[in-house]
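User: Let's play a game. I give you a shape written as tokens, and you guess the letters that built it. Ready? Here's round one.
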């Protein structure tokens, strides 16, 4: 190229991660093409080199993501927790997130356990429930250790009704509670009389009626409902209005025609689901649990199979490191608050519902759901950018879950811990916010990023398995 041509053309300088140089060029009216870049997370350089030298992670990840995407979840039944959840006992209370003890439990976890003890009739007052819990009268165990997931506090007590979701393409099964709705509900740590009354109705009426309805209509294909809902404006985590409507449509024939169930009960169940846009959330979570469990246990794989929070700790697990948890303090959610509540009222991030992001939904599918920003904050264009950024840390694009706003591109799925620490891009989660004190409930919703510390420790541990 001639000197004359060079002088005529605009000079464009590419920069990567050098802010001082970038600003100096801008000050000189130079056009720049800036790329976000940072070195790998501190302490992971050796581990990344070990994994690269071993040469097994790429093939292992291909196997893990193939297993994840092969799952075909179906909603098949509702049963009683103690009767069907593996390892459940009459004194076991499951909770969201990594392992936890009562003394380290957050306010929402404590409030939900108090409420569950009242519901079970194991305590007559909140004070008695606290004494039982603090004195070791119950066993606390993570939902994830029992093929189960629960939103927010995630408490599952022995007599609660739970959804049963099976893999039509394999032998996997997963469980979740049934969604109570929003506001003062057990999963947000509330335990007032209205909460306990609703739980009894759910156990006595909702669970049995939905079970009878499923027997009448047959298994419901959850993947198909979720896929359709994404094209109707849902994200699969904090917006499930379309998915709940599609589920109710699938249950409809049984709720209308099944005369073995009293008409009044069918009517109240219909109205409850119709008025609860979040009813489908728990089923989406159970579908996600099926997928991540199918991908677990692949030697050498850096695929993230669990992201979960208990209000105290944020934890992840990798396919190649089995059941081992890697934890960091749960962060505070940046969000929109209800009424007079503020960030000062908020408990740190909590819930198993980040299972949705782990399988390509929620914060990873926000581009499909412009309306979600009215609930969790941000802008519609920002939601698109967040989804696009998640492609940088994932192994695949989902074959069934597609985003119209991105020309029907599959959602980013299969978080790779090595890509997280290499790029510095943290998984984005949209979530509800619980009050930090027991007994109050929901105070808002918003956005949060998974702590880098979890991924750095997991990558180092994975590399150790290669030694």
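Assistant: Ready! My guess for every position:
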């Amino acid at each position: 190229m001639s000197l004359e041509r060079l002088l005529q053309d605009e000079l464009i300088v590419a920069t990567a991660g050098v802010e001082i140089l970038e600003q100096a060029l801008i000050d000189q009216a130079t056009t720049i093409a800036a790329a976000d870049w940072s070195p790998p997370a501190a302490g992971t350089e050796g581990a990344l080199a070990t994994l690269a030298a071993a040469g097994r992670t790429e093939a292992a990840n291909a196997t893990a993501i193939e297993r994840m995407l092969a799952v075909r979840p179906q909603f098949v039944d509702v049963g009683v927790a103690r009767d069907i959840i593996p390892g459940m006992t009459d004194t076991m209370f499951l909770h969201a997130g990594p392992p936890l003890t009562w003394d380290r439990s957050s306010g929402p976890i404590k409030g939900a356990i108090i409420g569950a003890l009242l519901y079970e009739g194991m305590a007559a007052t909140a004070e008695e429930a606290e004494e039982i819990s603090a004195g070791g009268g119950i066993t606390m165990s993570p939902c994830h250790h029992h093929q189960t997931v629960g939103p927010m506090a995630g408490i599952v007590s022995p007599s609660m009704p739970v959804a049963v979701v099976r893999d039509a393409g394999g032998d996997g099964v997963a469980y979740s509670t049934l969604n109570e709705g929003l506001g003062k509900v057990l999963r947000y740590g509330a335990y007032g009389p209205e909460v306990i009354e609703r739980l009894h109705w759910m156990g006595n009426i909702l669970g049995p009626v939905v079970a009878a309805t499923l027997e009448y209509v047959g298994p419901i294909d959850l993947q198909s409902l979720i896929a359709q809902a994404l094209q109707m404006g849902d994200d699969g985590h904090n917006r499930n209005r379309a998915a709940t409507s599609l589920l109710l449509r699938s249950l409809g024939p049984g709720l209308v025609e099944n005369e073995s169930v009293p008409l009044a009960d069918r009517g109240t169940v219909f109205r409850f689901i119709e008025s609860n846009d979040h009813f489908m959330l728990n089923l989406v979570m159970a579908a996600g649990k099926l997928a991540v469990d199918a991908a677990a246990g692949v030697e050498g794989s850096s695929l993230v199979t669990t992201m979960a929070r208990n209000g105290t700790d944020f934890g992840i697990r990798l396919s190649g490191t089995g059941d081992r948890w890697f934890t960091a303090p749960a962060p505070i959610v940046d969000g929109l608050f209800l009424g007079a509540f503020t960030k000062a009222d908020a408990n740190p991030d909590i819930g198993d519902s980040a299972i949705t992001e782990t399988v390509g939904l929620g914060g990873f599918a926000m581009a499909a759901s412009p309306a979600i920003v009215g609930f969790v904050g941000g802008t519609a264009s920002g939601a698109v950018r967040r989804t696009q950024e998640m492609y940088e840390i994932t192994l695949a694009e989902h074959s069934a879950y597609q985003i119209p706003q991105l020309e029907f591109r599959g959602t980013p799925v299969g978080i790779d811990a090595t890509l997280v620490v290499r790029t510095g891009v943290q998984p984005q989660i949209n979530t509800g916010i619980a009050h930090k004190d027991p007994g109050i409930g929901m105070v808002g919703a918003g956005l949060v990023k998974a702590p880098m510390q979890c991924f750095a420790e997991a990558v180092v541990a994975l590399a150790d398995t290669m030694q």
